[in-house]
Amino acid sequence: MAICRLRASLSLLKTKSPFFHYVPLHGFSSSQLSSQFESVGFIGLGNMGSRMANNLIKNGYKVAVHDINCNVMKMFSDMGVPTKETPFEVAEASDVVITMLPSSSHVLDVYTGPNGLLRCANLMRPQLLIDSSTIDPQTSRKVSVAVSNCILKEKKDHWEKPVMLDAPVSGGVLAAEAGTLTFMVGGSEDAYLAAKPLFLSMGKNAIYCGGAGTGSAAKICNNLALAVSMLGVSEAFVLGQSLGISAGTLTKVLNTSSARCWSSDSYNPVPGVMEGVPASRNYAGGFASKLMAKDLNLAATSAKEVGLQCPLTYQAQEIYTELCKDGHESKDFSCAFRHYYSGQDEL
């Protein structure tokens, strides 16, 4: 199957304003809200996206998909899911399109490239475009402006123009599989309310964060805090081991004390302490260190742009960059316990 790789660039523009006339949603049932988005396009079928798309299918949406990976496309095709060769073809078949992509450059490619979602800006079918990628807020705002300048092929209900939401997620692969993700959503609040049934088909929480780019900003801040907490927990476990306290015992202390956090009670980094987490399988799967390094780069860049001193951001950025250079880029980010701090497994 011929899969096009797209290229594009887009100048920075400022965005704000509602893009459709809002009809109050309290008069609509969940099924009525869902029905306006019966046909859903999904682009980006990696570890997260493939599971999110599966949950949409399970919840009764008509889904069409696209990815540059021919193997994953075949997997969906074998399931009876329509596959499209370009993002533009996905747009032509969908009322709403969701993208889940690795980086800002991929998002620009898929939206504004020669065969991208916005190829026929004067006559777009989708009313709503949702980007769940973890990217910088500036790119989210650029693409939102580009979408707002497009025209709908057919005006439906109260939608006057296409709308974009930036809606990155938290929870990782396990939550994507279970449909328990948290969505952080930026853009028009009315569009967020209309899209909420979609979010709750893939997750358990959807939080409105503000205007365009604020969903992306929330995700960067969340992952910054996650990276720092994982490093802090790992450092504490290694110090505990050095002082004669087993990681299992210290875990009990942390999880019933003031230091309790997700990195200690749900995603413990010490092999042998907790089942079902990446540490229990040689740090395979989960959230790759290279992705954490990418997100910390986004956080560091954003901090510099607003003139904010963030020493923990820069320290965490250095540690995860070093882990990647040492060959651990594909291992889960909790591998810092073993590969940066030289922590020991629990016997």
TrEMBL record:
Residue span(s) of domain 6-phosphogluconate dehydrogenase NADP-binding: 40-210
GO term, biological process aspect, one: L-valine catabolic process
Pathway: Amino-acid degradation; L-valine degradation
Keyword Mitochondrion found: yes
Organism from which the protein derives: Populus trichocarpa (Western balsam poplar)
Protein name (Swiss-Prot/TrEMBL): 3-hydroxyisobutyrate dehydrogenase
A Pfam family the protein falls into: NAD_binding_2
Keywords: Branched-chain amino acid catabolism, Mitochondrion, NAD, Oxidoreductase, Transit peptide
Active site: K219
Enzyme class per UniProt: oxidoreductase
Keyword Oxidoreductase belongs to the record: yes
Coiled-coil ranges from the UniProt annotation: none
Cell location: Mitochondrion
Reactions accelerated catalytically: 3-hydroxy-2-methylpropanoate + NAD(+) = 2-methyl-3-oxopropanoate + NADH + H(+)
Major location category of this protein: mitochondrion
Gene Ontology CC, one term: mitochondrion
NCBIfam families xref list: HIBADH (TIGR01692)
Top-rank taxon, per record: Eukaryota
Family: Belongs to the HIBADH-related family. 3-hydroxyisobutyrate dehydrogenase subfamily.
One annotated GO molecular function: 3-hydroxyisobutyrate dehydrogenase activity
